[in-house]
Amino acid sequence: MSSRCKFWLPKKKRFCAIPPIANSEFCGNHSKRSDDIWILCSIDPSHSVLESNLESHLKRCPLLKHKNSLSLQPFYRKGINGGGEEDDHEGVTSELKRMAVQSMTEPQLIKLIEKIKFVHDSVCKDILDSYIVPDACRSWIDRAIDCYRKIPFQEKHVIQQASILGNLEKLGALNSSSIGEQLHCNSSSADSPAVVEFGAGRGYLTQMLADCYGVSKVFLIERKSYKLKADRSLRQKESLILERLRIDIEDLNLNAIEALKGLPYLAIGKHLCGPATDMTIRCCVGEGAAKSSLRGLSIATCCHHLCQWKHYINKEFFLNLELTKDDFHAITWFTSWAVDADHSSDVADTNLDTVKDIGGGINMSARERAELGFMCKDIIDAGRLKWMREYGLESKLVKYVPSNISPENHLLLARR
Predict the structure, then answer these.
(1) How far is Cα of residue 135 from the mean position of the Cα atoms in its chain?
(2) For 123, how many CA atoms within 13 A lie in the half-sphere containing its CB?
(3) Total Cβ atoms within 10 A of residue 29
(4) What are phi and psi of 285, to 5 degrees?
(5) Is 247 exposed, middle or buried (0-12, 13-18, 19+ CB in 10 A)?
(6) I need a surface site. Which of 4, 85, 347, 401 has the fewest CB within 10 A?
(7) For residue 351, how many other CB atoms are within 10 A of its CB?
(8) Using CA atoms, how far apart are residues 370 and 375, in angstroms rounded to an integer?
């Protein structure tokens, strides 16, 4: 008999590791029963249960326990950063966006593409390249910090993290005075601002900031649970206070975090997917946010194809350009063409000659689709930039790494 269950786990791309039960190729969790079927949990669709066990499972589902506990926290406020009262509560899926674009007539599609190019020429002229590896982060790049060996190393991610922090330092929102102490993993600057990392994941961006600059308080905001987190290494710093809040950014009332009240803080985030960028900006800068405490903001935007009109921070920007809600969702769908391209070098230098029907009887080469996709990403982030400037922040939008490092290379920067 096999020592492992024969049930294939598609997400993990391996078989279940639990030993099988007697006279079966499967473990107790995955044994086939002729009178029962597996169905998705209605609370957390990331896992499934036997239909006969569903009722009892729903009473003890781990996610339900977490939601009940979270609702009692003072910093939880349902939908506070959602941005509006729209009818499409579930948002518009990528499939619906694609179908809407492909249902356009040729004149409609040509008109929209021409409008996108005109708007891009009008409002996206000052997006500069800003690839920075600050001196403070050189020790990470060279793997010189002893405690760094505990962290999984991927060069492209370290380069991105360094440039996110380097641009924040260049803007004047991050002090590099603690560079001389950076090789001491327990060092931290007593007068440094707190750090709030949004969409923190495993927390490696904050790990670099803490090692290379020195911070005293860290708040990691992430709705999912992760293994191999940087938390353990961060907690070894004697003078650093760390809090990890498992909460959706949409529901986070930053003013109600007791340990953050009255403190200057930096808001950082690497690859905040789709509407998470809008929610983060609204959380830090919008109505009710402690704007006076925000010292600086450095957010790498990502996954523009997931953006939703109901969450977007600057609807007026689009409307003033005579772009509708439907135009917005079409533009978000076009952005996927930017990341689908070959980024071994700049788009302008690649041989992208594959032609594809995009709908409305219009054919575009891969090069043309990629260029249009990048224009759409620029426009979406330009609206976000304009919104922050209107709220009195000194703000910039830059490309912080080359596209062959990551095609998701936009960085929103701001300081009070």
Answers:
(1) 26
(2) 22
(3) 14
(4) -120, -25
(5) middle
(6) 85
(7) 9
(8) 9
* Separation of alpha carbons 275 and 313, rounded Å: 9
Q: Residue 374 in 3-state DSSP?
A: helix
Identify the CA nearest to 283 among candidates 216, 174, 196, 207. Answer: 196
The model's pLDDT over 4-53, given as tens digits with 9 standing for 90+, comes to 888 888 888 888 888 988 888 888 777 766 557 778 887 777 777 777 77
Provide DSSP, 190-202: TTSPEEEEET-TT
pLDDT confidence of residue 110: 94
Beta bridge partners of 50: 38
Contact 198, 246 (CB under 8 A): no
Pairing of strands 38-40, 48-50: antiparallel
For residues 354-379, one letter each, b for 16 or more C-beta atoms within 10 angstroms of the residue's C-beta and e for the rest, the string is eeeebbbeeebebbbbbbbbbbbbbb
The two structure tokens encoding residue 260: 């953050």
User: How far apart, in Å, are the Cα atoms of 130 and each of 166, 170, 249?
Assistant: 9, 10, 28
Residue 137's pLDDT band, with cuts at 50, 70 and 90, is: confident
Tokens of 144: 């010189």
Give residue limits of the domains in the chain.
8-70, 94-415
Cα–Cα distance measured from residue 94 to residue 75, given in angstroms and rounded to the nearest whole number: 32
Query: Closest Cα to residue 282, out of 196, 391, 173, 194?
Result: 391
Which pTM does this prediction carry? 0.82
Q: What DSSP state is assigned to residue 76?
A: B
Beta strands (DSSP E) in 247-345 are: 265-273, 294-302
What tokens appear for 115 in the block?
A: 């409008």
Six token digits for residue 3: 């020592």
Angle at 384 between CA 210 and CA 78, to 5 degrees: 75
Length of the chain: 416
pLDDT tens digits, one per residue of 74-86: 999 999 999 876 5
CATH number for region 94-415: 3.40.50.150
